């Protein structure tokens, strides 16, 4: 946004008004190079069909939307940087006139020249264009410097008059029948038309300037400037309606602007403003003294644009013509104002300021200044109240004064130090508060420990006082202050009080506005209720149901009947400052005192721009590609990993910094709008689809504009096309097929391995049986039978043979099974141990111990796993021992596995290994390795990990105990 400089100018009225009178000030905005303008020298300004303001400069042209300048030069397509004239036609084109004579215009974001538009090619024989008109069908016509007429029919150039030479009068006398001018005035050296000898030239206007018919004629017909006179031109007569010499203007008039009833005149030395000229008023205001005015433009909103030679562009907002301003630049003592009042009888406006300075302005706008006693401090005038006929009461820091409006004299009524507020009761009784006293003509009451701020009378004898600690109530009879009621809201820091129709209105320092009835708060208004600020500085009641609340952010207007906010008035509406100190209302005119001057205006005619702004697209980017913006357009883009970005703007010359935008990138226009102050919206990583982007804007207090629409289609890449997706699906199916085939093959291979494992298990079990049934066992068993027979113990020998045969049959049966029950295994082990006891002459005893948990289940275990361990315990632990031995087999459950321990008190594992024969060592090692291998194979089937551990009790810390403990965890099948 360009930096805007505000220039306060005061009007010097001519000899036709009182010499020491001052009029309203104007706020003029200045735009220059540092704001973005192409050059400080500006030749001309036009407004195009969309609403943009264009400025012609020696270094190119500038397009302005109220906030941003977009500059164009030769590098952007201009035929020459030095553009001397601009014309905007009804077809939306802006034509650029340069001294090289080459045609060019701007339309739809493109500068058209002969280089990119063949229809603009024409041989001008070294001449350049002077004027431009349109005919009734909107074709442009041109008059060049050798007085030839050219016509452009949007396809080619023609010379409608052939080689004939003419002049500007050819167009002027055919205005409204053939041509329409594209500029409001024409500078000529004479009005004499050689081809129109019957035309009358009337140098003195015979018509009243305020005659409606003449007013319509001036605003309809072209205006011709002859030196410093203005003529309304018609083919039959040219009538002078303004003579600069009659108004004291000695310089030649370079440009004009007809602004309804007002007339603007630009000269090489200054700008002149004739307010209500066409109403017959004779008030001339001189502005921009020592400025070379090059052109004047009134835009569609009523703003006035002034271009200058070397000083940039000046703008006077349309709201300036509704507001009147007073400050130290046009008559007041200073710019800071504390109080305001207007005497209804005399019409004198009174303005109170610092330093005891009272300013008065009469109905003729004559300002006088009166200095109250300021010998003891600043003596700011805080209150001005109507008092008696021809008298006004003035409360200042150092005392109470009376100003006589007839004699124009100020007298001291009562000296008061640190006066804060004054109130006049219905009976005319004056009550004053200083910082710590309530003072009347009869008495004074001191209130210690608080700072008093305000006072209001509620009847002839009672009143309320505001303080920094809250509300106080007093009466003339008691002359004492009390705290009224118990409502905690009444303890706020108070700035001002007003008693209206039985209600007490309290303006606080930071909590907004309270309404109190019978010492109870009945209403609280704050910023949550749209109050402009919670910091109240002064309350004013206009006597017509309107309460005005002056705050540090403007003025809020309250309806005292409904107790609701009606509107807010701020600097955005035209005030000189938001820091308001006081309000006064009289006969439709609202006066607002601020820290930066006085603003007054017609309360019923306050300007509000409710027309939505024109919104436009500035740029569309997708990655590193840019696209020419256009309304309602359709864009096809291939998807890429980039952000889609839209840049836009709104044409708003009043408060452009308050323009808001909304955008919607979905079909939900009810709740899908996103509000932003930014004019750039990015959309990252759009997927292939069709999108609709809507953008709209609104100005301060306006409605939302009609949205512009961009329909964008993001096209898929080749790999996102249907055929590419089909190929991808086919490849995916093939991949799934091969994966399934691989899985099936793995399953088959697993079954094959399982079969191989089963075969291997069978082999191992056979090997285990072989190991169990070793020749030594059979030989010893048979020797035992022989010994029994020889000892004539035939019965015992027969029993031994029977048990031996049963054991052999049981071993063969179990070898065919993968699992046997635990009961079968215990029976087998018992029979085997009994035979071993007989073989070894009962040299040991044995015992089986089963945990109770085993009784709840049917347990199945692989066969032939425990027997080799028991055999080793008997043969290598107990048999070599001197004396009787003990063998204990314990069985239990550990984490869904069978725990088995074989405990003997034999010679021990290490000692047994030392005395074994090599054959026995090989046999033992083979048996144990077979057990371990079987446990590993079982793991591959059910995932459970078996365990075999051999412990030499003497070596591993079992005290002096000898023997071997073998522990084994066996995977099982458990059933209830």
List keywords for this structure.
Heat Shock Protein 90, disordered N terminus, alpha+beta, 72 strands, 976 residues, five-stranded antiparallel beta sheet, Immunoglobulin-like, membrane, 9 helices, phosphorelay sensor kinase activity, transmembrane helix, Ig-like_fold
Characterization of the model:
By secondary structure, the protein is an alpha+beta fold. Among the domains are: 177-318, no CATH class; 615-648 and 657-715, Immunoglobulins (Immunoglobulin-like, Sandwich), CATH 2.60.40.10; 819-826 and 836-975, Histidine kinase-like ATPase, C-terminal domain (Heat Shock Protein 90). It has 9 helices and 72 strands. The strands form 17 sheets. It has a 5-stranded antiparallel beta sheet, with no helix packed on it. A hairpin with a 4-residue loop joins β33 (381-386) and β34 (391-396). The chain is elongated, with a radius of gyration of 56 Å. The model is unreliable at 1-23 and 918-924 (pLDDT under 50).
Physical arrangement of strands within the biggest beta sheet: 1-2-27-26-25
SS content category:
alpha+beta
Helical stretch count? 9
CATH level 3 topology of the domain at 819-826 and 836-975: Heat Shock Protein 90
As a percent range, the share of strand residues is 35-45%
Low-confidence stretches: 1-23, 918-924
Average pLDDT reading: 86
What is the general shape? elongated
InterPro entries: Bact_2-comp_sensor_kinase (IPR050640), HATPase_C_sf (IPR036890), Ig-like_fold (IPR013783), Quinoprotein_ADH-like_sf (IPR011047), Reg_prop (IPR011110), Sig_transdc_His_kin_internal (IPR010559), WD40/YVTN_repeat-like_dom_sf (IPR015943)
Pfam family, one: Reg_prop
Transmembrane segments: 722-744
Protein name: Signal transduction histidine kinase internal region domain-containing protein
């Amino acid at each position: 946004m360009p930096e805007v400089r505000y220039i306060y100018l005061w009007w010097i009225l001519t000899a036709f008004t009182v010499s020491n009178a001052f009029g309203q000030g104007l706020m003029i905005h200045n735009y220059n190079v540092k704001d973005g303008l192409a050059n400080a020298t500006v030749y001309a300004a036009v407004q195009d069909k969309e609403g943009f303001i264009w400025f012609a400069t020696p270094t190119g042209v500038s397009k302005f939307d109220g906030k941003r300048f977009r500059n164009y030069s030769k590098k952007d397509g201009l035929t020459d940087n030095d553009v001397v004239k601009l014309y905007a036609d009804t077809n939306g084109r802006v034509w650029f006139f340069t001294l090289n004579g080459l045609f060019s215009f701007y339309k739809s974001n493109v500068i058209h020249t002969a280089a990119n538009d063949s229809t603009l090619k024409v041989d001008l024989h070294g001449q350049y264009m002077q004027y431009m008109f349109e005919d009734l069908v909107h074709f442009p016509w041109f008059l060049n410097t050798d007085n030839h007429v050219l016509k452009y029919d949007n396809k080619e150039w023609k010379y409608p008059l052939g080689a004939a030479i003419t002049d500007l009068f050819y167009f002027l006398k055919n205005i409204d029948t053939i041509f329409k001018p594209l500029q409001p005035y024409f500078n000529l050296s004479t009005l004499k038309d050689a081809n129109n000898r019957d035309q009358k030239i009337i140098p003195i206007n015979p018509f009243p300037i305020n005659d409606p018919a003449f007013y319509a004629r001036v605003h309809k017909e072209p205006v011709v400037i002859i030196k410093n006179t203005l003529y309304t031109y018609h083919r039959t007569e040219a009538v002078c309606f303004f003579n600069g010499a009659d108004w004291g203007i000695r310089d030649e008039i370079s440009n004009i602007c007809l602004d309804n009833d007002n007339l603007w005149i630009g000269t090489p030395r200054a700008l002149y403003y004739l307010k209500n000229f066409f109403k017959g008023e004779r008030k001339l205001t001189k502005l921009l003294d020592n400025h070379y005015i090059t052109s004047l433009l009134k835009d569609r909103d009523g703003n006035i644009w002034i271009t200058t030679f070397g000083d940039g562009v000046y703008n006077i907002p349309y709201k300036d013509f509704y507001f009147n301003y007073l400050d130290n630049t046009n008559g007041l003592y200073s710019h800071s104002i504390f109080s305001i009042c207007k005497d209804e009888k005399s019409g004198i406006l009174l303005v109170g300021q610092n330093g005891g300075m009272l300013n008065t302005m009469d109905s003729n706008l004559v300002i006088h200044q009166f200095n109250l006693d300021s010998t003891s401090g600043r003596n700011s005038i805080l209150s001005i109240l109507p008092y008696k006929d021809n008298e006004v009461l003035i409360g200042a820091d150092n005392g109470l004064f009376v100003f006589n409006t007839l004699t124009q004299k100020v007298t001291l009524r009562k000296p008061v130090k640190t006066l804060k507020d004054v109130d006049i009761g219905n009976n005319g009784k004056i009550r004053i508060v200083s910082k710590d006293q309530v003072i009347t003509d009869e008495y004074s009451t001191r209130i210690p420990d608080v700072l008093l701020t305000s006072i209001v009378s509620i009847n002839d004898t009672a009143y309320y006082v505001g303080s920094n600690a809250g509300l106080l109530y007093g009466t003339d009879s008691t002359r004492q202050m009390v705290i009224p009621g118990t409502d905690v809201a009444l303890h706020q820091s108070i700035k001002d009080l007003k008693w209206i129709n039985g209600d007490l209105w309290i303006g606080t320092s930071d909590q907004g506005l309270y309404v109190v009835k019978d010492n109870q708060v009945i209403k609280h208004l704050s910023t949550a209720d749209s109050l402009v600020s919670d910091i109240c500085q002064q309350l004013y009641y206009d006597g017509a149901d309107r309460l005005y609340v002056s705050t540090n952010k403007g003025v809020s207007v309250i309806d005292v009947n409904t107790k609701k906010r009606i509107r807010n008035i701020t600097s955005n509406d035209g005030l000189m400052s938001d820091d308001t100190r006081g309000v006064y209302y009289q006969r439709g005119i609202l006066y607002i005192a601020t820290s930066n001057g006085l603003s007054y205006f017609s309360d019923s005619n306050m300007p509000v721009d409710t027309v939505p702004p024109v919104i436009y697209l500035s740029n569309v980017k997708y990655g590193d590609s840019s696209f020419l913006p256009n309304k309602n357009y359709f864009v096809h883009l291939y998807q890429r990993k980039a952000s889609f970005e839209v840049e836009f703007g709104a044409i708003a010359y009043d408060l452009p910094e308050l323009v808001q935008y909304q955008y919607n990138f979905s079909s939900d226009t009810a709740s899908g709008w996103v509000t932003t102050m930014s004019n750039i919206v990015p959309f990252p990583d759009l997927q292939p689809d069709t999108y609709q982007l809507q953008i709209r804007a609104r100005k301060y207090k306006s409605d939302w504009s009609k949205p512009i629409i961009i329909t964008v289609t993001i096209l898929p890449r080749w790999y996102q096309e249907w055929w590419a997706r089909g190929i991808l699906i086919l490849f995916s199916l093939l991949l799934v097929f091969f994966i399934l085939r691989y899985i099936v093959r793995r399953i088959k291979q697993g079954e094959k391995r399982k079969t191989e494992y089963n075969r291997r298990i069978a082999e191992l079990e056979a090997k285990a049986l072989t190991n169990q049934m070793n020749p030594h066992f059979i030989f010893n068993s048979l020797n035992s039978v022989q010994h029994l027979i020889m000892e004539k113990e035939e019965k015992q020998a027969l029993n031994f043979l029977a048990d031996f045969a049963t054991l052999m049959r049981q071993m063969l049966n179990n070898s065919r099974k993968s699992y046997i029950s635990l009961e079968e295994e215990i029976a087998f082990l018992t029979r085997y141990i009994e035979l071993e006891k007989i073989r070894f002459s009962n040299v040991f005893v044995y015992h089986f111990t089963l945990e109770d948990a085993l009784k709840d289940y049917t347990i199945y275990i692989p066969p032939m796993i425990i027997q080799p361990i028991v055999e080793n315990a008997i043969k290598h632990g107990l048999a070599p021992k001197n004396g009787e031995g003990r063998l204990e087999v314990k069985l239990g459950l550990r984490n869904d596995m069978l725990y088995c321990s074989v405990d003997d008190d034999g010679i021990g594992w290490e000692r047994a290994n030392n005395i074994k024969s090599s054959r026995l060592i090989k046999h033992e090692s083979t048996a144990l390795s077979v057990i371990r291998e079987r446990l590993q194979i079982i793991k591959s089937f059910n995932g459970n990990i078996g365990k075999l551990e051999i412990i030499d009790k003497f070596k591993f810390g079992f005290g002096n105990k000898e023997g071997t403990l073998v522990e084994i965890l066996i995977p099982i099948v458990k059933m209830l």
